[in-house]
Write a structure and sequence with these properties.
Its EC number is 3.5.4.26, 1.1.1.193. Residues 11-143 form the CMP/dCMP-type deaminase domain. It catalyses: 2,5-diamino-6-hydroxy-4-(5-phosphoribosylamino)-pyrimidine + H2O + H(+) = 5-amino-6-(5-phospho-D-ribosylamino)uracil + NH4(+); 5-amino-6-(5-phospho-D-ribitylamino)uracil + NADP(+) = 5-amino-6-(5-phospho-D-ribosylamino)uracil + NADPH + H(+). Keywords: Hydrolase, Metal-binding, Multifunctional enzyme, NADP, Oxidoreductase, Riboflavin biosynthesis, Zinc. The chain is an alpha/beta fold and 358 residues long. The protein has 2 domains: 11-163, Cytidine Deaminase, domain 2 (3-Layer(aba) Sandwich), CATH 3.40.140; 165-357, Dihydrofolate Reductase, subunit A (3-Layer(aba) Sandwich). Helices cover 26% and strands 23% of the residues. The chain has an 8-stranded mixed β-sheet with strand order 10-9-8-11-6-12-15-14. Strands 2-1-3-4-5 form a 5-stranded mixed β-sheet, sandwiched between helices. Helix 3 (105-112) runs parallel beside helix 4 (131-137).
């Protein structure tokens, strides 16, 4: 729950919040900043016979270094020649109160003369929090909690990353029905279908970093790129991270086109995530083999699992996850299924690791 005076908002404001969420979805899923949308609504009496709630401006955050949603909405209103004094700003995340690459949104709203601010989710980022308090102190009415669940669903990985001080971690598995990621001879290309692989590449294009261990880097020589349906490099290429102490040969596919390559010479998942957090990495996709998967699970830092399961049986070969130290069924790591999606002949299971299981 937020810290505001109410959570309902008016019907017009709730509709505006739904629109703000649609705008927020236009922003990139990757990057250090959240996806935020803002709608500015006219107050009553701004023109003869005018009803409150006319949209004066709209905006969304387009990525790091660009204007935040509130500032973009103010600029949109001004480009239309509209006066925003006395307006209501409906925004999916509490306006920030810090100066980074851009100035504080709370100050921009105050300077524009906005009279009311309706917020979905309070900002958990300790570097940015305080916008609502600044606005209230200046006499602006602030309501927090309108459409909070929908906004939290959109902001999920970012909210977790800034509140816990580490990236949100998705563990990707691509297995046979009997849980194998490679045959007895080590071959693994391809267990899953083109449809499943295309989905996985789309996920790569949304995250900030791909993580593998040195074992996978040496055995598979992966490129760790995000590609579109035609095999071309996607517009966004995630950071390519190799965790482990062994050296990698020069001239492998990691030397080719793609995102920056980062070597983290550690076997400790928490240490690796701390280094990525320092780089403002918010979303990580772990694609390493059984050893790395087990290490992240045992460290309690996996938030979600994407399991691509193919209708294939091997009966032998490498398991998807190495030993977790679980000796009895009562201690099994049980996940909460969020989605089951057919992908060609395969199935994608998306499941969350519950807090008590960490």
């Amino acid at each position: 729950m937020g810290t505001g005076t109410a959570v309902e908002g008016t019907e017009v404001e709730r509709d505006a919040m739904a629109r703000a969420l649609d705008l927020a979805r236009r922003g990139p899923a990757h990057g250090p900043n959240p996806r935020v949308g803002c709608v500015l609504l006219a107050p009553a009496g701004t023109a003869a016979g005018e009803l409150p709630g006319r949209v004066l401006g709209e905006g969304w955050h387009r990525g790091a270094g660009t204007p935040h949603a509130e500032v973009a909405a103010l600029a949109d209103a001004r480009s239309r020649g509209l006066d925003v004094r006395g307006a209501t700003a409906v925004v999916t995340l509490e306006p920030c109160d810090h100066t980074g690459r851009t100035g504080p949104c709370s100050a921009a709203l105050l300077a524009a003369g906005v009279a009311r601010v309706v917020v979905a989710v309070p900002d958990p980022n300790p570097a940015a929090v305080g916008g609502a308090d600044r606005l209230r102190a200046a006499g602006v009415e602030v309501v927090v909690g309108v459409a909070e669940d929908a906004s939290r669903a959109l902001l999920g990985p970012w909210l977790l990353a800034v509140s816990r001080g580490r990236p949100h971690v998705t563990l990707k598995l691509a297995t046979t029905l009997d849980g194998r990621v490679a045959a007895a001879d080590g071959s693994s290309r391809w267990i899953t279908s083109p449809e499943a692989r295309a989905h996985a590449h789309a996920l790569r294009a949304e995250v900030d970093a791909l993580v593998v261990g040195t074992g996978t880097a040496l055995a598979d020589d992966p490129a760790l790129t995000a590609r579109d349906a035609d095999g071309a490099l996607a517009a966004h290429q995630p950071l390519r991270v190799v965790v482990g102490e062994r050296d990698l040969p020069v001239g492998g596919r990691l030397s080719g086109p793609g995102g920056e390559v980062l070597r983290l010479r550690t076997r400790d998942p928490r240490e690796a995530l701390a280094a990525l957090h320092e780089r403002e990495t918010r979303r990580v996709l772990v694609e390493g083999g059984p050893t790395l998967a087990a290490a992240f699970l045992r460290a309690g830092v996996v938030d979600q699992v994407h399991a691509y399961v193919a209708p294939v049986l091997l009966g032998a070969g490498r398991p998807a996850v190495a030993d977790l130290g679980i000796g009895t069924i009562g201690d099994a790591l049980r996940l909460r299924t969020r989605e089951v999606r057919p992908l060609g002949p395969d199935v994608l299971v998306v499941a969350d690791v519950e807090e008590e299981e960490r």
